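re: that chain from earlier
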Amino acid sequence: GFCLLFAIVTAKVAHAADTPETLLIRQVLNNDRFAMRRGIEHLDLALSGYADNFVVYAGNNTGDPRGWSLLYENKEIFTDALEADLKANRFDITRAVPHILVGDKKAIVTTIDSGQVIDRQNGTFRELNSQRLWIFRKIEENWLATAFVQSLGDSLDGASQPSTEAPEIKNLLEREKAGW
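^ sequence. v structure.
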């Protein structure tokens, strides 16, 4: 009895809601985190989980899309920025995945990255606590990130007036809604 209980307690347990689809999405997120932790040598591994039409929005610490702005409008610009960031910094981070909602061909995911960003030149560090909202699309049999909102925040405060990017955000959300 004790051995069976010990084996159950110490076994690696999948998250209660995990399905084959969520496991594939988690693998993309793990590859991204692995590259952030291990550096530029593993950039291709992270980028393999991003769709060609990938974009990044700055959430500006609000959950209200009217407060978001476009940060990187395509995968190439994002790749250049990520490469520069990985050359300059080392990321000692953990990633929590508090929510995954999977449809037939689309999914949304929230992540929370926490830890430290360490400057490779002088060793100084800053704390990191970043919330992201990810949008995934299933292309053939692969789940690929098509966008994420960086620094999402957990409040609807701070966006009482629509930003100049609001029409773009509205159009994006309408296109996403049509795909569901």
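Residues 1-14, 159-164 have pLDDT under 50 and may be disordered.
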